[in-house]
Structures are given as C-alpha cells and as structure tokens.
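Weekly sync notes, structure subgroup
Attendees: PM, AL, DS (notes)

Item 1: joint prediction request from the bench team. They want all two components modeled as one assembly rather than separately. Inputs as received:
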Amino acid sequence: MRKILLLSFVLWAALALAGCPAPQPASPDQGAQAPAQEAMAGEPIKIGAIFDLTGPTSDVGTPYAEGIQGYVQWLNEKGGVSGRPIELLFQDYGYKVDVAEQLYSQFVNEGIVAFQGWGTGDTEALRGRIAADEIPFMSASYSAVLGNPEEAPYNFLVGTTYSDQMLIALRWALEDWAAKGNAGAPKVAVLHHDSPFGRSPVPDGEAFAQANGMAFTAIAMPRGATDLTPELTQAREFGANYIVIQNVSSPAALLLKDRQRLGMDDVQVICLNWCADEILVNLAEGAAEGVVGTLPFAPPTEDVPGLQAPRDFLAAQGQDLNEIGLHYGQGWWTMAVMVEGGIQRTLEAGMELTGPNIKASLEGLQGFDTGGVTAPISYSEEDHRGNRSLRIFQVQDGQWKAITDYIDAE
Amino acid sequence: MESGIFFESYRQDLTLRRTPAQKIRLALVLAFVLVFPFFADNYYLTLANQIGIAAIGAIGLNILTGFTGQISLGQGGFMAVGAYTAGLLATRWGLPILVTIPLACLTTAAVGAVFGIPSLRLKGLYLAIATLAAQEIILWVVTHWEAVTGGTDALVVPPATLFGLKLGGRGADFRWYWVILAFAIFTTLFAANLFRSRVGRALVAIRDHDIAAEVMGVNLFRYKLLAFATSSFFVGLAGALTAHYRTIVTWERFTIETSISYLAMIIIGGLGSVSGSIYGAAFITLLPAVLNNLGRAFRDVIPGIAGLIPQIQLGVFGGVIILFLIKEPEGIAKLWKDVKDYFRLWPFSY
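Output from the run, pasted for the record:
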C-alpha cells in the first residue's frame, strides 16, 4: 500500500515536471519584454485568454469563449492579420482569481501581446498588473471605472458600460412612461446582484433619477436566493413602476417568475445585459414575455451583417448561431475589436507589436464598424469606453426584438 | 546502523533539527529558495509567491485548528481584515509597508480574539458555525461600510516601497519574492518555536483534552483567546501581503471558498504540523497549475478532448484530494516522514 502511494506521488511529481514548460534562465524582467520581439512575416501573434467553462458563470462564459476561439479560427483560415496567424493561449480558470493570476503571468511569459479576461473578479485583480506589464486587456466586465484610463490605463471596453446601460434604461423608462399617457415621472427600483458587478451602475442611475425627478431605490438580491418575494414586496411597497435588474440570468428568471406569481405584471422589468439573453427567456418560460433589455450586442435573431460571418463559420461546422445565442457574437466581436482595431492597425502603421503601440492604435480607433452588432466603437486617450449607446430590445414571442433605434446615454 | 532516533538529554529533545540529515536537508532547501528566483521566470515566481502567502496563512490556521483543535471557517474573513487594514492604511495615510503590515497583523489578531470568544462555550461543529458567522459578518461589514472600505468597489493600493526600493512595476514578482520569503521564514520559525514553549504546550493540551488541560492548570479562557489572536495575526499577515503584492483588494478574494481552501491545505498537508502547512499550501496552489499545464499539453495531442479538459481537470482535482485523504489521513507531512523512516532503516526495515 505504502509503495503504491509512494509510486503515485513520484508519478504525480514527474507529471508535474513534464507538464510545465522548463524554466529558462532569465532576468526577472524577461517576461515583460517578450512582446518586443522582432516582427517576422508568418510568425504567430500570441494573445492570452482565460475562460470560465466550469465556474459559476460558465453558462454564459462557454458561448463567449467559443466566440473568441471561433473568431481566431475564422481569421486564421482567412490568412490571419497581415499574413500572420493569431495564436490564442487559453485556459479555463473556473472564475478563480488565483488561477487567473497564474495563467496571466504564464501567458505573459510565453510572449502574449494582449489579453482577454472574463469577469469582474479577474479583471479587477489584474488591473494593476496589466498596467505595469503594458498588456492591453479586454473582458466582459463593463464597469465604468475600467473605461477611465486614469484608473485603468490598459483596460478597453467593447460593451456599453453598466452605468451607461442604466442611464439608457432610465431614459427609455421616462419616454415609455410618457408614451403610455402618464403624468409626472415613474418610480424606479433597481434590483441588483450584491457585488461590485451588481452595484456598479447604481450611483450613476441614482444621480440621473434625481436630476429627472424620478423616485429611485436600490435593493440587493441576496446571493443564492431561491425566493425573491421579499425583494419584490419591497419594490411594490416603494411603488415601483419600473424594475431594473443588474444580475445574471438565473436569479433574474427567478425574479420574473416570482413577479408573475405575485401579480405584479403591471411593473415593467428592464434587464441590463447580463440577464438580457436567451438563457433568461428559457429559464423564465412565459414570465419573460414583454421584458425589456439593454443589449450592447445584437442577438442572433436580429439580421445584422456583423453576425453573418460567425453564422456561416458555425454553419460550416454543423452548428447554429441561434442555438448558441448572443454571447457567441459578444466574444467574437470583442476579439475582433482587439485584433482588427488594435493589432492589425499597429502592424499596418509599420509599428512594432508592443503593448504601448497596440494601446496607441486602439486609442486612435474612431467609429469602428461591427456590422450592426454594437454601436460603432471609438476610443481616445481620455476614454476607453467603446461606445455609449445601444438599442432597447423586448422579449416578444420568446425572442429578443429591437424596439428602438440607438439611444445615447448622454 | 541506526535503529531509531534516541535522545540522551532534554536539550537534545528540544532541538528543532535533530539529525545531521535534517540539517543537510534544511541547508539544501535554503540554498534552493535563495537560488530559485534567479533562474525562475515570472510565472514560476508568481506561483512561488502565491505558495509563500498561502503557507503563511496556512500556518496561521494550523496554529488554531491543527495545534489547538479549534476549527475555524473564518479564515477568509480574517484575511480580509488584514488586507483591508493594510490597504486602507497605505491608501489613506500613505504609510510604508513596514508600518501597515504589523498594524494589519495586530488588528486582525484583535478581531480574531473577539470572534474567538464563542470558542469558550462552543466546540467542534458548533464552533465551525460560529466562525462561519465571523466570516459572513466580516465580509458584510467590508462590503457595506462604504465610508471606510469603499464598499464593494476595489481598493487600489499604491505600489509599495521598502527601504527606498520600489517593489511594484516590472519585476515586481522578483522583488516581492524576497519580502514574502522573509515573512514566511519568520512565520515558520515563530510557529516551530511556539510549540516548544510553555504557551504552545498549553495549546496542544487544550486540543488533546480541554478538561484535563484545565485541571492541570491551563487557563482555558486565556489560552483559547491567545490561540485565536496568534493564529489571526499570521492570517492577517497573509492578507496584508496579498493586498500589497497584488496592489488591489477586492472582497471576492476572501469568500467562504478561501476559508475552505485553507482548511483543505492544512488537512492535506497535515494537521498540527508546521511543515505540513507549507506542503499543503504548495499542493493546493500547484495542483491547479499542474492540471492546467497538463490540460494544455494534452489538448493538442488527443483530438476531440479539448472540450472535456476543464471537466476532467475538476474531476482530477477532487480525485487527487480524496486519494490523499484516504491513503494518508495525516497528510503530506506524515507521508514525507514515512519516506524518511523507510530510508533511515533501509534495507533492514523490520
């Protein structure tokens, strides 16, 4: 028995050594300088990525990851960027911050020039490191602070920030309220995930509501709740006409079902982007009908030119974009902005492919067209928010349909 | 030919390193950790630093759970106290790390002692729930006391300097390696010596039988609180180091999952063993890294397996832990001891 144990321990150690790339003698600064290698035709461009395929957000993380990988494969089949293929270094991290840090420094060592993160946890944890290492970074966390280069110089946002989504939602609520023939301003309750992600748009929303005479309250949705009656009751007692949800799909679906059960159908629900997807419609069954969403990325049911390439790419593999859902296009176009807006423009300008150069190229990006998937993407030295407008969608017959033109947050 | 280790005086019995082999191994380990950073790249340095911080936290938890027998699910919360104290002192008042870190440790020790009070009445599973409450209360305070902690927003800590040397920026992993190593050695020496002292023996007596210990004259009130305070001191140190090393503090790093992963470290490493805490910290930190590297290596070798790799990794992670617990409930420390014993008496082990 003891021998078996010893043997398995030795085997584990051997596998550990075999699995890791051998450490090369190097100065401590070596990893950070790796991106500054000579650009050679045909040499792959390395981009790092971490995905959540097994953690708490894997339901949306998986199609997002497939979108990023799909774009890279599609681009490489077309011949890559200026004749150079993209090599995506990726790994699942299960939404664990420690693992994200390990993978990030491993990929930086292996010579990546840019990085695709995923959630709020890893994006916040790596914010300081990417600035020190000068690695341009995009992720699916749309906190407004990440769009401010003074706070986060190497973070770039493709999706509309949560704050801007909130402002757009409130603008729409004001119009909708007046269009229905009501006088005065509506009362709004924000029900949010109890986390930085959830609370991120609350202060800006509150300021906007006060400036426009709307009564406003924010109610935290407890994590892991199986019944949201108390929160809904609180919203009803407040007299809310509109409920804005900043949470992920499964608790939002629970809320919609509870709302139906409590007979609060007259309260219009608005979902910000992480609960405005197909998963919500499937989970809430009929209760999602009529729900409105701020979608920065067009769903596959919209016939926009920007989704044709991913649709055809998937069809060639026997898959259907409509089945995979809107997060595929979200991942696809986030990667496209990084590659076409940053890396390709750097190479075309004849500059060396370094973090600061890619950052400068992105900061010169004006009105980048995503084929109608998002509002055009622009960055500047003072503003890393890709866009500040989106269309409002509504669930009609179980599908998200655009009901407005682009609404601007300002 | 040896047949065992025998002591002829109390002085011999009390020494930390008893045999020449132990002294040689210690010298080898020291030589390795001193040379390692010059040959390692940033990835290996990141892993080493994560292990160092985890080892400090695990030794802290082991003082409480392994040596004193008081189970704690509040590890994440106590780390948060250390991280936020150090982070806030550095951000608000610009204090240097040689001030923020000790203050963070002392604050965590005080908070730990307060949450240790229920241990005077509660034992075992009941104490586990009481410390779970500590975890939840601390995180609730951290995320809701906005005037002080900034609520759920990330707390950005300015890069630290030590003796005029900037620790942040490029090469931060290399410079922090030495800082973390120094604190880890201090923690290890302190803990190893603690259990040769009167206080340490009192703590072990409480673990073995609290009533018997009290009859022998061990003041339970005093020593249990002392155990909580000492343990929390080092847990706070781990938290403070995380804050300064990562230059950002978010509550998401200190959830109940953190508490459980530290418990896993000391159980797998060896309860009531200082070196076991270090082995456990290394094991729990390296296992995901090893699995990730294996996953990346096999992804391209076997077609069609790419989509399954993350699930396989999770299964292997759980499986390896279960295997270790079944095969050697006393942890890696015991496993290592068995290896040493086997070779000491080899080839005539019976």
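Discussion: Chain B touches chain A through 57 residues (CB under 8 Å).
Action: AL to compare against the crosslinking data before next sync.
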